[in-house]
């Protein structure tokens, strides 16, 4: 048994020491940055009709990669496994409408905010009882698991929360009459309402408190600095406004 | 602009538009399933033989493997291989992780099928072969296994069909197989009924194909008996 253990331990040490090269150096060396994203979230990240991954975050990711002088490779990942997958080294960063929260900062590095939004409450058109967050008491609210919408309603008293792995299922639940409201980021809800004429937005809350950041593994501080610098330059050069107009038109934030 | 009314109307043009993507997803499902079947067959034959081998250690190890794998959900095994192994320095691509998890899982079931097939051959045959002067290995190879193989085929076919359907679980590690492809299309179109019907049809076409192939080989083997 011991004879077995020695090579195994050596192998683990070897793999471990290879990981000592910083993520930024690795990215530069391979000429590619691997970006995890859950492409089920229009208009931020989704699959278009041809199956291509597109969206605001995707264009932003490409712009960041360009600033770093590398190529962006997007890895489509289910939301409920996206943080474990980052820690497991399946990709270098996450760009997936990820709000910066105290909780996430404990175990991850997050960039400066690149997009600011609120939480929105959407209900069926024929619903007259829900007008604001306080009306959610005693109601069934559908959310996507682990999102800031999920966190927000989970803190509310007397709300029954139904959690789904993708956000479209939450809308479906309301349309099918099995939940009263969807709570999610306004950026996504506003876009979704264009596809769902039988639903409406009744209120927004946590105004301007949803700040999206690029997520990295804890300790990747070199990469964090490089990405913050890239974001700064993208905003200064007008590239950011160009991407914003492409996906949100001239509408307000 | 897509619309979704509470006065439900079905729009199968959404399914028609999705067909090319679903077809690509189905080929991924076929690829991952056939590789897993190959791996599972290899592991399963070894495990099944080990279960009847006249060697206690082999029997115990194979027995432990089978019990452990059959006693835990495939979904948990997939997560363990994909998210868990990187902690030991083994960072696998989703597709490889999926094949390994499904192959190890299927190997346990195939192992039981192989053992069952061998044990279904009357004990008297082994004794007769031994008394004719054959060694245990010869008796197994020339007398028991050829007969067991014919009996193993139908349950093996069931296992392949079950595995093909269970491959939908790898959609959770974002392998763009048939189920995940359907999900992705629905996040954009909201055509749940139409798309899931199409996905179901694709699965059925594939499982039906497997069941025909198994039936065909069964008949061939019967004739050759």
TrEMBL record, chain A:
Keywords, ordered alphabetically: Signal
Pfam families: SBP_bac_3
Gene3D superfamilies in UniProt: Periplasmic binding protein-like II
Superkingdom to which the source organism belongs: Bacteria
InterPro entries: SBP_3_CS, Solute-binding_3/MltF_N
Signal peptide bounds: 1-21
Domain Solute-binding protein family 3/N-terminal stretches: 32-251
Protein localization: Cell envelope
Cellular component GO terms held in the UniProt record: cell envelope
Subcellular location, principal: other
PROSITE patterns from the UniProt entry: SBP_BACTERIAL_3
The family this protein is said to belong to: Belongs to the bacterial solute-binding protein 3 family.
Name of the protein in its database record: Basic amino acid ABC transporter substrate-binding protein
UniProtKB/TrEMBL annotation, chain B:
Topology relative to the membrane: Multi-pass membrane protein
Domain ABC transmembrane type-1: 26-214
UniProt subcellular location: Cell inner membrane; Cell membrane
Gene Ontology biological-process entries: amino acid transport
GO CC terms of this entry: ATP-binding cassette (ABC) transporter complex
Record key words, sorted: Amino-acid transport, Cell membrane, Membrane, Transmembrane, Transmembrane helix, Transport
Protein's UniProt keywords contain Transmembrane helix: yes
Pfam family, one: BPD_transp_1
TM regions (residue ranges): 28-50, 62-83, 95-114, 195-214
InterPro entries membership: AA_ABC_transptr_permease_3TM, ArtM/GltK/GlnP/TcyL/YhdX-like, Ectoine_EhuC, MetI-like, MetI-like_sf
GO function term, MF aspect, one: transmembrane transporter activity
PANTHER family from the UniProt entry: GLUTAMINE TRANSPORT SYSTEM PERMEASE PROTEIN GLNP, MEMBRANE COMPONENT OF AMINO ACID ABC TRANSPORTER
Primary role: Part of the binding-protein-dependent transport system for glutamine; probably responsible for the translocation of the substrate across the membrane.
NCBIfam families membership: ectoine_ehuC, HEQRo_perm_3TM
Protein family according to the UniProt entry: Belongs to the binding-protein-dependent transport system permease family. HisMQ subfamily.
Listed name of the protein: Putative glutamine transport system permease protein GlnP
Species whose genome carries this gene: Candidatus Caldatribacterium californiense
Lineage of the organism: Bacteria, Pseudomonadati, Atribacterota, Atribacteria, Atribacterales
């Amino acid at each position: 048994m011991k004879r077995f253990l020695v090579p195994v331990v050596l192998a683990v040490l070897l793999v471990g020491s290879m990981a000592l090269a910083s993520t930024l150096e690795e990215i530069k060396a391979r000429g590619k940055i691997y970006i995890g994203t859950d492409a089920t979230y229009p208009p931020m990240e989704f699959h278009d009709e041809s199956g291509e991954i597109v969206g605001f975050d995707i264009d932003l990711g490409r712009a960041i990669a360009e600033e770093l002088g590398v190529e962006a490779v997007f890895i489509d990942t289910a939301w409920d496994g996206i943080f474990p997958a980052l820690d497991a080294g399946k990709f270098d960063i996450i760009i997936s409408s990820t709000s910066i929260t105290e909780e996430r900062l404990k175990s991850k590095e997050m960039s400066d905010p690149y997009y600011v939004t609120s939480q929105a409450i959407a209900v069926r058109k024929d619903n007259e009882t829900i007008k604001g967050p306080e009306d959610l008491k005693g109601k069934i609210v559908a959310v996507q698991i682990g999102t800031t919408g999920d966190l927000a309603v989970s803190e509310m008293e007397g709300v029954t929360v139904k959690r789904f792995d993708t956000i479209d299922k939450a809308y479906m639940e309301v349309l099918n009459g099995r939940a009263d409201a969807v709570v999610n980021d306004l950026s996504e809800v506003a876009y979704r309402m264009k596809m769902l004429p039988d639903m409406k937005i009744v209120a927004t809350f946590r105004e301007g408190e949803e700040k999206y950041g690029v997520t990295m593994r804890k300790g990747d501080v070199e990469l964090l600095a490089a990405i913050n610098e890239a974001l700064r330059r993208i905003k200064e050069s007008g590239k950011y406004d160009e991407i914003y107009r492409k996906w949100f038109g001239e509408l307000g934030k | 602009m897509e619309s979704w009314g509470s006065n439900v109307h079905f729009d199968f043009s959404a399914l028609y538009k999705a067909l090319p993507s679903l077809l690509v997803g189905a080929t991924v499902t076929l690829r991952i399933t056939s590789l897993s079947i190959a791996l599972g067959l290899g592991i399963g034959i070894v495990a099944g033989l080990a279960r009847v081998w006249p060697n206690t250690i082999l029997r115990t190890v194979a027995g432990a493997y089978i019990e452990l794998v059959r006693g835990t959900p495939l979904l948990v095994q997939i997560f363990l291989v994909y998210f868990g192994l990187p902690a030991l320095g083994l960072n696998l691509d989703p597709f490889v992780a999926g094949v390994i998890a499904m192959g190890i899982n299927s190997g346990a079931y195939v192992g039981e099928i192989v053992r069952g097939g061998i044990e279904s051959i009357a004990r008297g045959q082994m004794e007769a072969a031994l008394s004719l002067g054959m060694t245990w290995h010869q008796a197994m190879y020339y007398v028991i296994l050829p007969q067991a193989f014919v009996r193993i085929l139908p349950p093996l076919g069931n296992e392949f069909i079950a595995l093909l359907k269970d491959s939908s679980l790898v959609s959770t590690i974002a392998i763009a197989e048939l189920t995940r492809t359907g999900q992705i299309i629905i996040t954009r179109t909201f055509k749940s009924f139409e798309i899931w019907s199409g996905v179901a049809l694709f699965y059925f076409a594939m499982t039906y194909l497997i069941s025909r192939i198994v039936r065909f080989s069964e008949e061939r083997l019967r004739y050759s008996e």
